[in-house]
Automatic annotation (TrEMBL):
It comes from Acyrthosiphon pisum (Pea aphid). It comes from the Eukaryota. Residues 63-294 form the PCAF N-terminal domain. One of its GO terms (biological process) is regulation of DNA-templated transcription. This is PCAF N-terminal domain-containing protein.
Amino acid sequence: MGGLLCCISFWRNQRQDHNYRQSPPDDKLVMHRWTLNDLLFVHVKSRRLILQNRDMGYLQAIIAKFSTCKCPGCKCQGGIFTGIKRDNFGWINSICTRSGCKHRLSDHIQHLREASFKEFTVLMKLIFDIYNTDITLYNLSKKPKSERNILLKGIFESVFDVLDASVLLDPFTLPNIDTIYGSPPFEKTNIEQVLLNFCMHIFNDNGTLKFEDALKVTKFVLKYFDTWMWNIPQELLKCDPREYSKSYDYYYCRFLLHCCLPRCVHSISLRYRPTKIFGQDVLKYTLKAFRIQLQVWCCKKSIMWNELTTSFCLDYFPKYMDLLEKEVFNDESPIWDMDYEHGDLKRETIFLEY
């Protein structure tokens, strides 16, 4: 990328970059420090950096394909420069072969002259993600038309449209994916608050579990839920749709977009915590399947744990989940409406420090 920086001035003096097209999100809703240990994120990033570190001429030609021609009156929405050999000046003097354009490649990339390095990185993310999303859509089109694949195709089509519009209209700003399904959160009282309410309601004067132990189980459950992959719609356990305000598909699509896709579509820079943006409906939809999978995981891992941890996960956890399940499927339970401040809990123990 050094060659590109030598040829085009990416630095703008006394300039302040703006990264978000939408208003800044609530910092409490998003995951932090998750990218370093996420293998999928690291793999995708390494592939993007390979592209980003290509030679000057190659990058110019790639960017020009996604850039409108800046000549007055030209309506070209992206240059085509195939079949033209690179000269001593790179691709700068190549001519666009689109009908009605016929302008130089340099006329498509004038906006790079005043771009900062940060803006250039945003642009490369967009271009890389557009290529990847297009390939994903092609692969999905070859798969059987299951409910999951239909939902995935709809999500990736929407993401592709947003990315494509962003790179044409405002290439140095992260795209606003909130235009697809709206802005998180999607339920009023989130899962984290519901579980805190549950602890305050059940364990303040209950001999089954100490309140401090119940909070430790809650922290463990929340961490696992935030990284747990929900069941696909066709594997959802039977439930009465009249008991829910929205369908499972409604929440599943928003879960994939805001909690999963940021791992592989890096233009979607924020990854939200499911326990912060979903609430009663999602907890009722997922609790039974979540409990089964977490309990299986605990049993498998218990052979590597010490006696205290094993007792905690194989004794306290089932008792906790039995009581939680009873409350979650009781619409009259006060856990849906109680709203304790975190300060109330800190009198007992420090919580949510992660």
